């Protein structure tokens, strides 16, 4: 363990009174970073299902994710999350803060600070947009033939660690560092905690 840190110590860039939840890549060092850029990501969780979007373009294309993007100047995180949900899925929802994630990628000097939101209801008609194709996935055993299990093989590597917390309404905080080869991103080191 480098720098005198133990597995249960929260990583650089992560603050707060947290209880350790899980970690990986414990034998390698955290990557350095100078500054952050700010993003949101929103999920609708309803009746044992989660609404994900298949990203058709831009960063994270060909992966399923929540709906979100950059926080624009003058916006709060919540305003940005609501705007992105409307732009990318055509709906509005009473979003509540669910978690905070810090992502680093080898070769990219700015870290991504992503505030995660969730809602259990929404209004409007879920619509495919230029950026995202929305799709419902079952969070448990599939009980309907038109609903799939979560597509973890087509999501960011570390989503499998915190999505169960999001689904159950448990708040979470974490950091994940990725190695990058061409368009392939592989999780290198990660740590998740829950508020004490
Ligand atoms: C690296 O790990 C990540 N995991 C997850 N689950 N989500 C991530 C990760 N890295 C970034 N994201 C999310 C954060 C945002 O919700 C999107 C990226 O936003 P995007 O680049 O599409 O921002 P926009 O403002 O929508 O961009 P344009 O309008 O310029 O297309 O991915």
Which key terms come to mind for this protein?
196 residues; Nucleoside Triphosphate Pyrophosphohydrolase; two-stranded antiparallel sheet; Oxidized purine nucleoside triphosphate hydrolase
Return the structural class.
Answer: mainly beta
Q: What is the element string, with H for helices and E for strands?
A: EEEEHEEEEEEHEE
- In whole angstroms, the N-to-C terminal distance is 24 Å
Ligand names: the ligand COc1nc(N)nc2c1ncn2[C@H]1C[C@H](O)[C@@H](COP(=O)(O)OP(=O)(O)OP(=O)(O)O)O1
Per CATH, what is the topology?
Nucleoside Triphosphate Pyrophosphohydrolase
Number of helices: 2
Mean pLDDT: 92
CA-based gyration radius: 17 Å
Say how many strands there are: 12
> What is the CATH homologous superfamily assignment?
Nucleoside Triphosphate Pyrophosphohydrolase
Give the class-level CATH name.
Answer: Alpha Beta
Please, how many domains?
Answer: 1
Main sheet? 10 strands, mixed
Which range does the strand content fall in? 35-45%
CATH-level-2 architecture: Alpha-Beta Complex
The residue ranges in which pLDDT falls below 50 over 5 or more consecutive positions are none
Q: What would the principal axes of the Cα set say about the shape? A: globular
Helix content: 10-25%
Task: Sum this structure up briefly.
The protein is mainly β and 196 residues long. The chain has helices at residues 77-89, 159-168, and strands at 18-24, 35-46, 49-55, 64-65, 91-92, 96-105, 108-119, 123-124, 132-138, 148-149, 172-181, 184-195. 12% of the residues lie in helices and 43% in strands.
